[in-house]
Design a protein that fits this description.
The complex is a heterodimer. In chain A, 58% of the residues lie in helices and 10% in strands. Chain A is α+β, with helices and mostly antiparallel strands. In chain A, strand 8 and strand 9 form a beta hairpin. In chain B, 62% of the residues lie in helices and 0% in strands. Classes of the chains: A alpha+beta, B mainly alpha.
Chain lengths: 679, 183
């Protein structure tokens, strides 16, 4: 029954997406609004198809219906309920179900949000684009990655269960859905970008319409990445949270280009410039999510997180090429309309800072892309195998990151158009002293090494100028000084600084050792005392847990363990981490008592400030929420370039959330523009 | 419009010495910190620290995408023990890495070499970055060479007429979509 239901869902989703796209495009070309408005019904049907497939798969997993291929391959009667539920996104085919369902959700959200403009060609083409993307993913489910194949298992068959690494930590239930909400969310702005190119309405309208969608997608992606590194830290057991692994890079690249986009888009909203650049960044972000899926799911690159390999590689590669070709073709075709008016007056200005930001983020993304795919290229060229790992990425990205931190300190205080030296001197003095204080504190606490101390200094500097903006805004507008894109953005900046400082500290001052301890024996390492109390073995059904009880500085006991899973040959360690605000002590068990030997070997990793990575991630998420919250309302009919004598101030056209405001009326930077920009 | 910014008077107050004094003091603090950070002693690294540092640059031969430092696979544990032994015998970091490259091939090293085609991975990003920065400089040069456009009375009249027309159309049609492609 689950097979039939699941197939019905997939077929419904595929049919609705394909028919919907064809109908909407036909209606748009033939100018039949009643056909275009059918996008509403088709979108709901796509979501319905996704939900049915999702429900069928969950039902099959929960009832352990081993006649479904996916459950046969990935399910097990021994898997605990939470991990059993999460098994849906534990392997490739199931994760495509999640992808399709989320995309259906976004489709319906767009239809609801733009319900009054469904026959507007811009919205119509955007929905058609989204339906095409949805069609592609449902096609994968129907053909190359079909999870609903039926099998007839031998009586009494029990599946292997998900990969042991995937049933070791509850974050598994949250990290992939967050990441997918981010990946899939970028489909919305991408679809509007395509629609803007097709309709020729390449002005700022589509940007404003998708501003929040982009921020929300970006926020989900950020949370997904942070949760992913938290998961690695808690599960993999070597005290690391980021290893520049291909799968991690695949999620990081769209984040980098997306971050560049949400900054440079402000230049276009304000000055109407950088149109081609912004379109390219957005399409690159979307294309990179597909390329990332290809890299990680086709098995061309080996990775610690690649839990599946399959035959969808070619399909993804074709789709990726199609996106790139379509985008490049459309941008070329609309070249004449994309030529931007205006110019940037001075590099020392808000616009100039955004450009510098884009160059740095672009370079960052390029480095990550190079490091990820270079081994493939080399192998193709001369059949040589090379590895590109952490040392390469660190060496290339640390200078870029430090420059970005410095830019983050200076940019927020820059006015649009042009800044004077005097003004910078005045506004940056206190933030700079905060940075200097951070350096002094770091050095006084024993930090050595130019890179780390510079990171603390620039971090303090950036936090200072973000804090300055927040203080000024709240002083002027009360609680509203915390909401809106620019103010929320400053909160995000503070979160980034917290993460940057935590990365610099934990990466530079990590101490690691392997200790062998007899029962009752204590050992000291890097200022902490570890005492091995004894061993505990228990059978939990799905796994046999072999745990060592260890006290850290008298607290605990902490119990790192080695788990032997019933259905796997692997032994997977579960580390145990004592987190405090100042440092983390991570223990991972390497050897348990065996035969005559009563000692254990435990690897201890001591890193300062790790917990601030997760706190910083939470601050970034909070800042994104604040940024999405509507800021101070503007009169939507504010003229763009000149006051209009005689026109009564009326209700502006709806759907125009804000046009480029005249200087002095912007939501945040009253202070700056009033004094800097001659009106 | 907001009130005249109070910063203006504060900015121009004081002699150049008074204005620059806080920045000079700041520079002293920063330079002091950085020199302590750069030249201050951290103590010689312990053998265990060295083992960990070397292990991070060597790929686990049997697992996918993990370094010897990260992996708990038997092969990695053996290599870690072997590195510890070599460190104890007084071999240099470079020698130890070279030994493993000789034994397992270059792919065991996580840092790609900078020779032959492989050098591209180091050079290309730097070149791309330099080109992007040079491009920006050229564009800014060109922009600053142009005289800024000044609106003449005729221009203003044109804009006014266009805005009025758009406004009237918007009111008339209650333009639900409201974003002219002209903007």
């Amino acid at each position: 029954m689950n097979v039939a239901l699941g197939r019905a869902g997939v077929t419904l989703g595929l049919a609705a997406a394909v028919l919907g796209a064809v109908t909407v495009v036909y209606g748009l070309v033939r100018k039949k609004p009643e056909l275009v408005r059918l996008s509403r019904a088709y979108s709901v049907l796509v979501l319905l198809g996704g939900v049915v497939a999702f429900a069928a798969m969950e039902h099959a997993l929960i009832t352990r219906d081993f006649t479904v291929r996916y459950v046969y391959d990935n399910g097990s009667t021994k898997t605990p309920a939470l991990y059993n539920f999460a098994t849906l996104w534990g392997a490739l085919e199931g994760s495509i179900i999640l992808w399709g369902t989320i995309l259906g959700g976004y489709l319906v959200a767009v239809v609801v949000k733009f319900r009054k403009r469904l026959d507007d060609p811009l919205v119509g083409w955007a929905l058609a684009t989204m339906l095409v993307v949805a069609g592609f993913f449902f096609f994968l489910l129907a053909g190359p990655a079909n999870p609903f194949e039926s099998v007839s298992p031998a009586p009494g068959y029990d599946g292997p269960g998900p990969n042991p690494l995937l049933q070791n930590h509850p974050l598994m239930a949250f990290h992939p859905p967050m990441l997918y909400l981010g990946y899939v969310g970028f489909t919305v702005p991408f679809a509007f970008a395509i629609a803007a190119l097709v309709t020729g309405r390449v002005g700022e309208g589509w940007l404003l319409a998708t501003r929040r969608w982009t921020l929300i997608a970006w926020g989900f992606l950020t949370v997904g990445i942070v949760l992913g590194s938290w998961w690695s830290y808690e599960v993999l057991g070597w005290g690391g949270y980021w290893a520049w692994d291909p799968v991690e890079n695949a999620s990081f690249m769209p984040w980098l280009t997306g971050t560049a986009y949400i900054h440079s888009v402000m230049v276009q909203e304000r000055r109407g410039m950088l149109r081609v650049w912004n379109l390219s960044l957005l399409c690159a972000t979307f294309a990179l999510t597909i390329l990332g899926t290809f890299i990680t799911r086709s098995g061309v690159l080996e990775s610690v997180h690649a839990f599946t390999e399959s035959s969808i590689g070619p399909a993804l590669l074709v789709f990726f090429s199609l996106i790139v070709l379509t985008t490049v073709g459309l941008i070329g075709w609309r070249g004449d309309r994309l030529r931007s008016p205006g110019r940037i007056d001075s590099p020392i200005s808000r616009e100039g800072a955004f450009l510098a930001n884009n160059v740095l983020f672009g370079a960052f993304a390029f480095v990550v892309l190079m490091g990820t795919i270079f081994p493939l290229v080399i192998e193709a060229i001369n059949d040589d195998r090379i590895s590109v790992g952490t040392p390469y990425f660190n060496r290339m990205t640390i200078p870029l990151s430090l420059t970005l931190l410095f830019l983050m300190a200076v940019a927020p205080v820059l006015p649009w158009r042009k800044a004077s030296g005097e003004l910078l001197r005045h506004r940056l003095l206190w933030p700079a002293w905060i940075g200097a204080a951070a350096m002094v504190v770091g050095v006084a606490l024993g930090a050595r090494g130019v890179g780390a101390v510079l990171a603390f200094g620039f971090g303090g500097f950036a936090a200072g100028s973000a804090g300055r903006q927040i203080v000024l805004a709240t002083r002027r507008q009360g609680w509203r000084g915390l909401v809106g894109r620019a103010n929320g953005g400053m909160v995000v900046h503070i979160g980034v600084v917290v993460i940057a400082v935590a990365v610099a500290a934990s990466g530079s001052f990590v101490r690691q050792a392997e200790l062998t301890l007899e029962p009752g024996q204590s050992a000291s390492f890097a200022g902490h005392t570890l005492t091995y109390e004894g061993q505990q073995v228990r059978d939990e059904g799905a796994k046999v847990v072999n745990q060592a009880l260890i006290r850290i500085d008298g607290t605990g006991p902490w119990g790192p363990s080695l788990n032997k899973f019933a259905n796997g040959s692997q032994t997977i360690g579960t580390p145990s981490v004592r987190s405090t605000l100042t440092d983390d002590v991570a223990l991972s068990l390497i050897q348990v008592p065996d035969g005559d030997r009563t000692s254990i070997t435990v690897r201890v990793t001591i890193q300062p400030l790790v917990i601030w990575l997760w706190i910083g991630g939470a601050v970034m998420a909070l800042g994104t929420l604040l940024a999405v919250f509507p800021g101070r309302r503007r009169n939507p009919i504010d003229p763009v370039s000149a006051p209009l004598p005689g026109a009564r101030a009326g209700r502006g056209p709806s759907g125009r959330e804000g046009v480029a405001p005249r200087p002095g009326r912007a939501d945040v930077d009253d202070e700056r523009d009033a004094e800097e920009v001659p009106v | 419009m907001p009130e005249p910014a109070p910063e203006r008077s504060a900015l121009s107050a004081g002699s150049p010495v008074r204005r620059w004094l806080p920045w000079a003091a700041l520079a002293v603090v920063v330079v002091t910190c950085l020199s302590i950070a750069a030249f201050g002693s951290t103590g010689t690294p312990t053998p265990q620290d060295r083992v960990a540092a070397i292990a991070k640059t060597i790929k686990c031969p049997t697992c996918s995408g993990e370094s010897v430092a990260e992996s708990n696979a038997p092969a990695s544990q053996e290599i870690r023990a072997d590195i510890a032994e070599r460190v104890q015998n007084g071999q240099g970091d470079g020698d130890i890495r070279a030994y493993y490259a000789g034994r397992y091939g270059d792919a065991i090293l996580l840092t790609p070499s900078a020779s032959g085609v492989n050098a591209l991975i180091w050079i290309l990003p730097v070149v791309a970055f330099a080109v992007a920065v040079a491009g920006l400089v050229v564009v800014f040069r060109r922009w600053s060479g142009e005289a800024p456009a000044h609106a003449s009375a005729a221009d203003r009249a044109l804009v006014e007429a266009a805005l009025r027309r758009e406004h009237e159309q918007a009111v008339e049609a209650d333009d639900a979509h409201g974003e002219g492609s002209s903007r």
